[in-house]
TrEMBL record:
<dbReference type="InterPro" id="IPR002328">
    <property type="entry name" value="ADH_Zn_CS"/>
</dbReference>
<dbReference type="GO" id="GO:0008270">
    <property type="term" value="F:zinc ion binding"/>
</dbReference>
<dbReference type="Pfam" id="PF00107">
    <property type="entry name" value="ADH_zinc_N"/>
</dbReference>
<keyword id="KW-0862">Zinc</keyword>
<comment type="similarity">
    <text>Belongs to the zinc-containing alcohol dehydrogenase family.</text>
</comment>
<dbReference type="GO" id="GO:0005829">
    <property type="term" value="C:cytosol"/>
</dbReference>
<keyword id="KW-0520">NAD</keyword>
<keyword id="KW-0560">Oxidoreductase</keyword>
<dbReference type="InterPro" id="IPR017816">
    <property type="entry name" value="MycoS_dep_FDH"/>
</dbReference>
<dbReference type="InterPro" id="IPR011032">
    <property type="entry name" value="GroES-like_sf"/>
</dbReference>
<dbReference type="InterPro" id="IPR013154">
    <property type="entry name" value="ADH-like_N"/>
</dbReference>
<dbReference type="GO" id="GO:0051903">
    <property type="term" value="F:S-(hydroxymethyl)glutathione dehydrogenase [NAD(P)+] activity"/>
</dbReference>
<keyword id="KW-0479">Metal-binding</keyword>
<protein>
    <submittedName>
        <fullName>Nitrosothiol reductase</fullName>
    </submittedName>
</protein>
<dbReference type="Pfam" id="PF08240">
    <property type="entry name" value="ADH_N"/>
</dbReference>
<dbReference type="InterPro" id="IPR036291">
    <property type="entry name" value="NAD(P)-bd_dom_sf"/>
</dbReference>
<feature type="domain" description="Enoyl reductase (ER)">
    <location>
        <begin position="15"/>
        <end position="367"/>
    </location>
</feature>
């Protein structure tokens, strides 16, 4: 039986989001209906609204979500009704070439729901199929996903905090812990201290880095970074790229860091991260570049500095392994997941939350439903 719920859509490119009635179809054999409790407001949702990711309007926005499994398909075995889950957009298929090579973190064919949610009757676009953001679509009272997109975690967790593992926090945390493989006693520099960068700072601390250097243009963000465990900060405001690089190197006895994480993804921060490394240091790009950005360095510098340059997709995470772990560490007071929730808002506040996000004054606004 089709259910009608309220949800936030982007109807056309750049237009303000709208709260509309949405039809949720009966779940297919491996589908699940999740009652959404909370969903973080991510830059990716804004990019969908602005047409920077795809042109498949209308979009059902939201993807950093947690909630309760309410209904399951006939062949679902992964979750049960009543389970508390964090939604993920890497529901590994087990069949693609990455999965068969033993690298499911790069799965090229992740599962999604078998049917589309649609705009309900009474709307000018009634019946229009919705494209869910990252295959999830969670700025909505209930959403339809594949069972593999649901990861069971400790129900004692705050949904507003747990849901953030669904994207940005896991991206930054995983960039440090999984992609960079930060080891105890190593030095780490993180360029850009928004939500993703701050999670990379916290991840480096969790991994046992002895020196964590936060780099940003905003002194307030740097002050916050120290609360997440950064041991040193470098404010880039008014400094040239070379001066920023030199400041990082001075903090590491002139050698540079073992790991440099670019959480911004613009050419300036990429170059700073590249040259701030020690010889044989690792650079990780987790900030998503735009379609025209270029990262140019002389080939002799690439060769001569050695080490590795990696991009980090979703923090190279495996949701079934990582989400329960970091929820538990949060509940034990060993990872500051709760501290990433800057404000709690309602469904009708998504557009305002986008504006707040652009100011850079929040780590995450979270929609509570």
């Amino acid at each position: 039986m089709t259910e009608i719920v309220n949800g936030i859509i982007a109807r056309s490119k750049g237009a303000p989001v709208e709260n509309v009635r949405i039809a949720i179809p009966e779940p297919g054999a491996h589908d699940v209906v999740v009652k959404v409790q909370a969903c973080g407001v991510c830059h990716t949702d804004l990019a969908y609204r602005d047409g920077d990711i795809a042109d498949e309007f209308p979009f059902l926005l939201g993807h950093e979500a947690a909630g309760i499994v309410e209904k399951i398909g006939t062949e679902v075995s992964h979750v049960e009704v009543g389970d508390f889950v964090v939604l993920n957009w890497r529901a590994v298929c087990g069949e693609c070439r990455a999965c068969k090579k033993g690298e499911p973190k790069y799965c090229f064919n992740t599962h999604n729901a078998s049917a589309k949610m649609t705009i309900a009757e009474g709307d000018p676009d009634a019946g229009a199929e919705l494209t869910p953001a990252l295959g999830i679509g969670a700025f909505v009272e209930k959403t339809l996903v594949h069972e593999g997109q649901c990861t069971k975690v400790n129900p004692a967790a705050d949904p507003a905090a747990a849901g953030l593992l669904g994207c940005g926090i896991m991206a930054g945390l995983g960039a440090a812990v999984n992609t960079a493989d930060v080891k105890r006693g190593e030095s780490v520099a993180v360029f850009g201290c928004g939500g993703v960068g701050m999670a990379a700072v916290a991840g480096a601390v969790l991994a046992g880095a002895s020196k964590v250097i936060a780099v940003d243009l905003d002194p307030e963000k740097l002050e916050t970074a120290t609360k997440f465990g950064a041991t040193h900060t470098v404010c880039g405001a008014g400094k040239s790229e070379e001066e920023v690089i030199e400041a990082v190197r001075e903090l590491t006895d002139g050698f540079g860091t073992d790991v440099a994480i670019d959480a911004v993804g613009i050419p300036a921060t990429s170059r700073q991260a590249f040259y701030s490394r020690d010889l044989a240091g690792r650079m990780v790009l987790v900030g998503v570049p735009n379609l025209t950005a270029r990262f140019d360095v002389p080939a002799i510098d690439f060769f001569g500095r050695g080490g590795s340059l990696k991009s980090s997709w979703y923090g190279d995470c495996l949701p079934e392994r990582d989400f329960p772990l970091y929820v538990d560490l949060s509940l034990q007071g060993r990872f500051p997941l709760q501290d990433f929730v800057s404000e709690r808002v309602g469904l009708d506040d998504v557009e305002a939350a986008f504006a707040t996000m652009k100011t850079g004054k929040v780590l995450r606004s979270v929609v509570e439903i």
